[in-house]
Write a structure and sequence with these properties.
Layout lengths: L2 H28 L7 E4 L19 E6 L5 E5 L4 E4 L3 E5 L12 E4 L5 E5 L2 E5 L4 E4 L10 E8 L5 E5 L2 E5 L1 H5 L5 E3 L8 E6 L5 E5 L4 E4 L4 E4 L13 E3 L5 E5 L2 E5 L4 E4 L8 E8 L5 E6 L1 E5 L9 E4 L9 E6 L5 E5 L2 E5 L4 E4 L6
Parallel strand pairs: 1-5
Antiparallel strand pairs: 2-3, 3-4, 4-5, 6-7, 7-8, 8-9, 10-11, 11-12, 12-13, 14-15, 15-16, 16-17, 18-19, 19-20, 20-21, 22-23, 23-24, 24-25, 26-27, 27-28, 28-29
């Protein structure tokens, strides 16, 4: 073999080796699937339907929340609350002091305590033990509504029930007094959601009396006479421009502080009996209803702004909760478990993933 042929052979060998290494790294980097978590379930779950799928995170996901440490929490119907930390999927229930197995609302206070709203009052979890608050603690109504635990910017804790709104008093709690008191500025409304807007106003959505706004001093009621159809507000959200959005029985409406603008199935919304609404960081609005979930892009003219997803797109039952985590991932809790969205259709997340 001549010197030139030897040099060409060495060059081709090195080039081939480098190409092979590059492909290997690219394939490894594209694999973003998380490993299946270890399941820790140290309790006997409540009675489920005979066809209950035990591979699901849970049959019914009522609430979803991400804490300050990055853990995801799923409030269920019948299986307590579930914590996912990417390594372990932990179910908390009776042996942990969490007597009630149905969780409708989840939030975290300034000290890192987690608060869970159930139909048997509120639970506070300090990372070790659960403490239940009920009638003896001032909660004359113990049926906590969905999305109705708010920790506002000042750290105050608000709890919405089917019979009014209550506030937590930590000083009274420390002194063995009544920890919760009724917020008397509001009527005894059936609360469907609580949130704080960018300006610090607290909003209360009700199922019978429209929407209430509290600016720290006065209460303003937005009801049917101002255009909120049938006084029903099931969901509440704020967009990047400060507009408030509410779900109504027949659709959704946008409130810019002066005018209410309605959107109904005639405009392209899917389904009937509209329940939930969430606005992504990108500005995309998701609306849940009986029979469908709608993706709404306000930057696109009607009717093309609406994309309707039905069971043919992956969902098999009604959506009961929606949440966007800090990484931008969207999560849905439905009557058939936990779901994610891949940009085109929904896929089910079971205990072993794909997470």
């Amino acid at each position: 073999m001549t010197l030139n042929k030897i040099l060409v052979f060495i060059f081709l060998t090195i080039f081939s080796s480098c190409n092979g290494q590059e492909k290997k790294n690219t394939q490894k980097g594209s694999n973003t699937a998380k490993p299946s978590p270890k399941v820790v379930r140290n309790f006997k779950a409540g009675a489920m339907a005979p066809d209950f799928d035990t591979t699901l995170v849970s049959q019914y996901i009522r609430s979803i929340f991400q804490d300050s440490k990055g853990n995801l929490w799923f409030g269920t119907l019948g299986e307590g609350v579930v914590k996912y930390d990417e390594i372990t999927l932990t179910y908390f229930s009776n042996p942990d002091g969490f007597i009630n197995n149905t969780v409708y609302a989840i939030n975290e206070d300034k000290k890192g305590n987690l608060w869970f709203g159930t139909d048997q009052g509120v639970y506070k979890y300090d990372g070790k033990t659960f403490r239940n608050y009920n009638q003896k603690d001032g909660l004359s109504h113990i049926d906590i509504s969905r999305k109705s635990i708010l920790v506002d910017k000042s750290g105050s804790i608000w709890v919405g029930t089917h019979g009014g709104v209550f506030r937590y008093n930590p000083a009274a709690d420390r002194n063995s007094g009544q920890s919760f008191s009724l917020f008397k500025e509001l009527p005894p409304i059936n609360v469907a959601g609580i949130m704080e807007d960018k300006s610090g106003n607290i909003w209360f959505a009700s199922s019978e009396n429209g929407v209430f706004r509290y600016d720290g001093k006065t209460i303003t009621n937005i009801a049917e006479k101002e255009g909120l159809g049938e006084n029903y507000a099931g969901g509440i959200a704020e967009d990047k421009d400060g507009n408030m959005w509410f779900t109504m029985k027949n659709g959704i409406c946008k409130y810019d502080g002066k005018t209410l603008t309605e959107y109904t199935p005639k405009d392209g919304l899917g389904g009937t009996e509209f329940w939930g609404i969430i606005i992504e960081q990108s500005g995309i609005i998701w609306i849940t209803a009986r029979g469908s979930t709608t993706r709404f892009d306000p930057s696109i003219p009607l009717p093309n702004a609406f994309t309707v997803f039905t069971s043919a797109d992956g969902f098999t039952c009604c959506v009961q909760s929606m949440y966007q985590d800090r990484s931008g991932n969207m999560w849905w809790g439905a009557g058939q478990g936990l779901y994610r969205f891949n940009g085109h259709r929904f896929y089910q997340v079971k205990q072993n993933g794909p997470w």
